[in-house]
Amino acid sequence: MLKNALIEIFERDLRQVAREINLYADESDLWVVKAEISNSAGNLCLHLIGNLNHFIGAVLGNTGYVREREREFSDKNVPRADLLLQLEKTISVVTEALRHLPDPALNEDFPVDKRGQIVKTDFMLLHLLGHLSYHLGQINYHRRLI
């Protein structure tokens, strides 16, 4: 079933984000920005946390989460332990929201538009998974570059 696969892959990839964050030898390197890379790993991590808590947690799971997207990119030097705790909470929010999502809802319109376009919920969830994977790759590249 698609929903179970989505839960498994979201959890797997969010755990991989946590592993990547833990692999930085120097915690301050999480926030390094070089000329050829516009976002730090720390900010990409905050962005993923905000994105998934908004689109899956608040929109589908009714958690009440209020996103502050600008802070995902402006906050700096958030302790690694805080990032990891937020990732764990995000895993719980995402998995619970998806577990409680009725199967027929996957074929319904996603409750909010995606940049002015109405898409089905299954499409949006696949989009969010691709977004997560894209930024996970950027974090991995950032870590190896630093």
What would your notes on this structure say?
There is one protein chain. The chain has helices at 2-23, 41-58, 69-74, 80-100, 121-145. The termini are far apart. The chain is elongated and about 45 Å long. Helix 2 (41-58) runs parallel beside helix 4 (80-100). 28% of the residues are buried. It is built from five helices and no strands.
Summarize the structure.
By secondary structure, the chain is mainly α. The protein has one domain: dinb family like domain (Four Helix Bundle (Hemerythrin (Met), subunit A)), CATH 1.20.120.450. It is 63% helix and 0% strand.
Count of folded domains? 1
Top CATH class: Mainly Alpha
Q: Which class best fits the helix and strand makeup?
A: mainly alpha
Low-confidence stretches: none
Describe the largest sheet.
Answer: none
Total helical segments: 5
Q: Would you list the SSEs in sequence order as H and E?
A: HHHHH
Terminal Cα span: 40 Å
Radius of gyration: 15 Å
CATH architecture: Up-down Bundle
Q: What percentage of the residues does DSSP assign to strands (E)?
A: under 5%
CATH topology: Four Helix Bundle (Hemerythrin (Met), subunit A)
Label the overall shape. Answer: elongated
